[in-house]
Amino acid sequence: MYKSTDSTDQLIMADGSPADTVSNFGSKISIIQRTKQDPSTKHVTFRLVLTIIGATMGSLQFGYNLGVINSPESLIKDFINATNYERTGSDLQGAALTNLWALTVAIYSLGGCVGGFSAGWWATKFGRKGGCLVNIIIGVIAGILMFASKSAKSYEMIIIGRLLIGVHCGLYSGLVPLYLSEMSTPRIRGAVGVLHQLALVTGMLISQILGFPVILGTSSGWSVLLGEMPPVLHHYLKYSVCLGDSITTC
Q1: 161: enclosing H helix or E strand
Q2: Among the CATH numbers 1.20.1250.20, 2.60.40.1080, 3.40.50.300, 1.10.10.10, which is that of 42-242?
Q3: What is the pLDDT of residues 142-196, one digit of tens each?
Q4: Which of 61, 116, 202, 219 could form a disulfide with 170 if both were Cys (CB 3.0 to 4.6 A apart)?
Q5: What angle is formed at CA 167 by the lines to CA 157 and CA 146, rounded to 5 degrees?
Q6: Which phi and psi angles does 10 have, rounded to 5°?
């Protein structure tokens, strides 16, 4: 039923209650038509696929650094003990070595807490894509410290590197899901959302495989395993080439 009033045209429902105004009804139809005609809601573009791959590299880093410390445990303990012996002329006692190793492992979680709590501010300050790119600098510094620790004969560099890589990965734990949710179309948003967790466990798997004694789990390869220099550089290239701007850029 249609009813004309002095102020506006209205549609009257069968029960007598007013429906949306004609203008509002027309606006809704126009929005629906634009949505149906918008190809971005129907098709997954090649650029979008590259962007998703680039973003999930951050989650891969998270998982990699979470599991990489387990395989070379005995090798790093030997390095810590040998370094201390060169400095002081005595070996570390069991409790001291255990506590130092526990600090090396646990400080990653401390850095992760700092990065996780800062992710919201970081995304607002630098933007989604910019925040990911700036965060790479922290990861590269951490990788260099851990990679060079053996040559410098400094286990303190491993501890500082683990702290920084924790901050690096903690930031990604907030930035990557946020970036993926904004970049994906509504049709694939649910599928894209699980890629963060998938990339995380994939990174853990890669770290365990590379940690085998026949690969990098050796006295000469553990610093490369921790420093993850190839993944860091590859990660930087992925973000530089693949990432597009998200809907919210600041």
Answers
A1: helix 155-183
A2: 1.20.1250.20
A3: 999 999 999 999 999 999 999 999 999 999 989 888 888 887 778 888 888 888 8
A4: 116
A5: 25
A6: -130, 150
